[in-house]
Amino acid sequence: MSESKKKLFKLLEGWETTLPEEIAPFVRRKAMELDDEVIEDFFEKFKVAGIDWGFSEYAPLVKTVLDATLSRLLNTDIRGDKNLKEALKSLKNGEYERLVIIANHLSYSDANILATSFDKYFQEAGLGNMLSVIAGPKVFTHPLRKFSSMHFNPLLIAQSQSVATGEATLPLRVIARAAVKVVKDIRENVKIFLVFPEGKRSRDGALTRFLPGVYRLIDTGDVRVLPVSVLGGDKFLPISCSNLSYTDVRINIGSMENIKDIREKYQNLPNFRQDAMDCLGKKLAELHPEEKRGVYGV
Q: In which element (H, E) is residue 135 found?
């Protein structure tokens, strides 16, 4: 066994303890089939992931491992996929500049669930491996969460003080500087990105109010917004647990919204960013079970 594979073997030992016993050998075989160059690429990116604000590249090794894992653990029901197909076709044809997927947030696994579930659509549209995901500092403070963040191109941002806790709490000047860097990277490097506008995981599964600061990340040019309801992440990786479980997941994809139309509707109001985000919150709530709509259920 090469030195690269020995290093990978050791790293996977910790991660595999989170998997059902019968899944771990398959995942290990999948990883060990990869070339040393792919493994070394992963370790180079893993070393610097989360060091600076903004855009980082995904690692093909992580994508291979997580796609293989999630495809076996998840029973996924996707509804409204024609909306995603139409959005990607229009993006590929240059009809607009950027697609922003907004989703509710139940688990650290939500982004990975959507990345695996949507990958075939991205590939079919000729937009494979272009997904970026907004991630807060907590994602990079734990090695397994950091590993999972390299499933896609992460965009590290400082969390709002209204939702940050513990190691994620930062001074306002740092939050502002991070936001500037992320917006710059979105404009320069990103065609598709996923954001969780609630800013934190819902403890009871109900939608909480979308953060007004997220508007700045979304309105970055000729942008379309795709609301997505995802249910099951809290069962797949519960907040209080580190083990992955066999889970039924339901994904409901809404109609594409033009951020220009939303801006024009609310821009002259005193709280237009919050109003705009509430508008998007209601669009997402329409895709959610009535009992899970939370603040957008009225």
A: strand 131-135
Q: Answer yes or no: is 31 within a domain.
A: no
CATH of the domain at 173: 3.40.1130.10
| Tokens 């229009």, residue located | 90
What is the total count of domains within the chain? Answer: 1
**Residue 53 tokens, joined:** 């604000």
> For 103-126, what is each residue's pLDDT tens digit?
999 999 999 999 999 999 999 999
CB atoms within 10 A of CB 56: 24
Q: Which residues make Cβ contacts (< 8 Å) with residue 82, sequence separation at least 6?
A: none
> Model-level pTM?
0.93
Gyration radius of the chain over CA positions: 19
Confirm if 42 and 61 have CB atoms less than 8 A apart: yes
Q: Which of 191, 180, 182, 183 is CA-nearest to residue 100?
A: 191
